[in-house]
Every structure is written in structure tokens, then in C-alpha cells.
């Protein structure tokens, strides 16, 4: 087995174990393989080991990789944009990705909706929430999240799927759990409203290599794992 296949098996094992510890069904958490800084050949290796969903942070790197892998790899893959989306990059995201996890302003969402090609299904959106951040961090403030979710839900070419968060590093499991639980509470509050346009609100994107157990305990439905699958990132991305 390649290292990537072995790593994937280990990460799937961690997810299964965390689900068991939390009393959750093993298929209630999906795995997003974060392939940023790694080449198309790494993605192809992961697909050979059964992985279908990939996350990219840097839009241009992601678009080039999607094209390269598309030629190399027959089965349909799902591509998630998980990096900051500047206004001049919305068109690339709308045309090439299936999901965007990092929408934190209405203006970005408006552009993504306007630029989403008609022949593609709606772009699947998570609203990024700054659960512990100051004003300089990406993500909408918890108090402003519902208003943004409602506004984005009205845009025709987008589908709001849930919330995403990247909490600051926390030293131990309990501290990680506390942060992820704040995001879970916000998610539950919005879900409980049962509003029109939020029928597809089912995704809580949180947890990475270092804290996926705590995220799953708190209710994550999608963990974003890079290092645990592809290894350490050795060169800085653009
Ligand atoms: C890089 C990145 C990840 C993956 O981080 P690892 O610690 O390598 O698992 C997940 N989410 C986002 C938003 C990232 O930028």
C-alpha cells in the first residue's frame, strides 16, 4: 500500500473510533481530504484508496489540480474550496468547485451566485463562523450568523448547507471540545428554526488532523484532514 492509502485507513479508523466514543453512527461524519500544496498525483493516489472529496485553500492551485486530476481520474470527485475567497477569485470558485466553506460576507455569496454557470448544480455553501475570533479573523461573528445564513439562502444558484469553523489552536481535548461545542450550539439554533431555504442545512464542517476527535464529539459532520493523509506540508503555498 502507498503511504497515502495507509494514512487514509488510519484517519478513517480515528473517525470510526471517535464516532463510537460519541455514540454516533460511523457514517455520520464524512472525510474531506485537504490536498493543498500536494500535487495531482497525491490526489490520484487517494482516489485509488477510495477517497472522493478533496479540499483546496488556494484557488488557482486548486483549479489547476482539478483540471490535471480530471484527466487522470475517471470517477467523479467532489472539490471543496476551504480557503479565503477574494472578490476577484469568486468566478473561479463558481465555475470549478462543488462546495465553498468560507463564505463570510454577503457580497461574496452574491458574486458566487451570479457567476455559477447554469449547467452546474447549485454551489453548496457553508458559512464560516469566527467562533473565538477577534475582528481580524476570517468568519462572521456568531451574533451575525443567522442574518447571513438567511440572506445567502435566498440566492438562486447557491444552497446553504451549514456552518464551518476553524477555531484557534487549543492545548488539549477539553479546550478543543469547548470551542467546537460553541459552533455546534449555533448550528443547532439555526437548524431548530426550520426556516424555508434551509432544508439542506445539514453540515457542520469542523475538525482537522489535530482535533478531529473533539470535533466529532461536539457534532462535526465533516472533518477536513490534510497532514494526517498527505503528510507534512514542506513548502509554503503562494
Ligand atoms: C490546511 C487546512 C486544513 C487541514 O489541516 P491539517 O492540520 O493539515 O489537517 C483544514 N481546514 C482548513 C481550512 C485548512 O486550511
TrEMBL record:
UniProt KW Glycosyltransferase keyword: no
Gene3D superfamilies for this protein: Alanine racemase (3.20.20.10)
Domain Alanine racemase N-terminal residues, every copy: 8-233
Modified sites of kind N6-(pyridoxal phosphate)lysine: 36
Keyword ATP-binding: no
Molecular functions (GO terms): pyridoxal phosphate binding
Cofactor(s) recorded in Swiss-Prot or TrEMBL: pyridoxal 5'-phosphate
Classification via CDD domains: PLPDE_III_Yggs_like
Keywords: Pyridoxal phosphate
Family, per entry: Belongs to the pyridoxal phosphate-binding protein YggS/PROSC family.
Function, as annotated: Pyridoxal 5'-phosphate (PLP)-binding protein, which is involved in PLP homeostasis.
Protein name (Swiss-Prot/TrEMBL): Pyridoxal phosphate homeostasis protein
Amino acid at each position: 500500500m502507498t503511504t497515502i492509502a495507509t494514512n487514509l485507513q488510519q484517519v478513517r479508523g480515528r473517525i470510526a473510533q471517535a464516532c463510537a466514543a460519541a455514540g454516533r453512527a460511523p457514517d455520520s461524519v464524512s472525510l474531506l481530504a485537504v490536498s493543498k500544496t500536494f500535487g495531482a498525483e497525491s490526489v490520484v493516489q487517494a482516489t485509488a484508496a477510495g477517497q472522493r472529496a478533496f479540499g483546496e485553500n488556494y484557488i488557482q492551485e486548486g483549479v489547476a489540480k482539478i483540471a490535471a486530476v480530471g484527466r487522470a481520474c475517471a470517477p467523479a470527485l467532489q472539490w471543496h474550496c476551504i480557503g479565503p475567497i477574494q472578490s476577484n477569485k469568486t468566478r473561479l470558485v463558481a465555475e470549478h468547485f462543488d462546495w465553498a466553506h468560507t463564505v463570510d460576507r454577503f457580497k461574496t455569496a452574491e458574486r458566487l451566485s451570479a457567476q455559477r454557470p447554469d449547467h452546474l448544480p447549485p454551489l453548496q455553501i457553508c458559512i464560516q463562523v469566527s467562533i473565538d475570533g477577534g475582528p481580524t479573523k476570517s468568519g462572521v461573528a456568531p451574533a451575525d450568523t443567522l442574518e447571513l445564513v438567511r440572506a445567502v439562502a435566498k440566492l438562486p444558484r447557491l444552497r446553504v448547507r451549514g456552518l464551518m469553523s476553524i477555531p484557534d489552536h487549543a492545548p488539549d481535548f477539553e479546550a478543543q471540545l469547548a470551542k467546537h461545542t460553541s459552533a455546534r450550539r449555533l448550528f443547532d439554533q439555526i437548524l431548530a428554526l426550520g426556516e424555508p431555504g434551509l432544508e439542506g442545512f445539514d453540515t457542520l464542517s469542523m475538525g482537522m488532523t489535530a482535533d478531529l476527535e473533539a470535533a466529532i464529539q461536539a457534532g462535526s459532520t465533516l472533518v477536513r484532514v490534510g497532514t494526517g493523509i498527505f503528510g507534512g506540508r514542506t513548502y509554503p503555498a503562494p
